[in-house]
Amino acid sequence: MNRRLKEKYGVDYIYHFTDTKNVDKIQEIGLYPRNMLDDDSYTPGGNEWSIDADNMFGLDSYVHCCFLPNHPMEYLARKEGRIIPIWLKINAEILSKPKIRYTPGVSNRSDMNFYDNEEAKKNLDLLPLYEYLDWKIPENGERRRDAEKYEILLPFIIPPNYIEVY
User: Fold this and answer.
1) Which of 47, 57, 111, 124 is deepest in the core (most CB within 10 A)?
2) What is the pLDDT of residues 64-80, one digit of tens each?
3) pTM recorded for the entire structure
4) Residue boundaries of the structural domains of the chain
């Protein structure tokens, strides 16, 4: 996926949002899947339902990222006042690592499909994220809103040298 994003769309980064309270620790030790963190050492972005769903589906073993610094889950966390959000840019070279999963929507929905790199290339409509679409055509806005929900699930620690505060 990294090569496709770079060659086709010129993408250098994927994104992750977190609470500003977490940034110093992330810059020091990296970005960890939630199941590897001490619950008292960070402020989660998800609400109780989202955290419970992640735990139930084993999604707490992934760092959740997205293609753009715009995701409906960040909007809800900010709107509900759960966090003071900040976006992190993650070097897209990380997508060359194995066992990464992609979802065509919010990952902890019970009916969500999970794709590996090859399946994601075939099934995710990335064009509305990176290319101009005529917004006067209602279907184009719907494609964009759907694509903004895509998630990238990284099953490992992201080292600090891959991360920049956005």
Assistant:
1) 124
2) 999 999 998 898 899 99
3) 0.94
4) 2-165
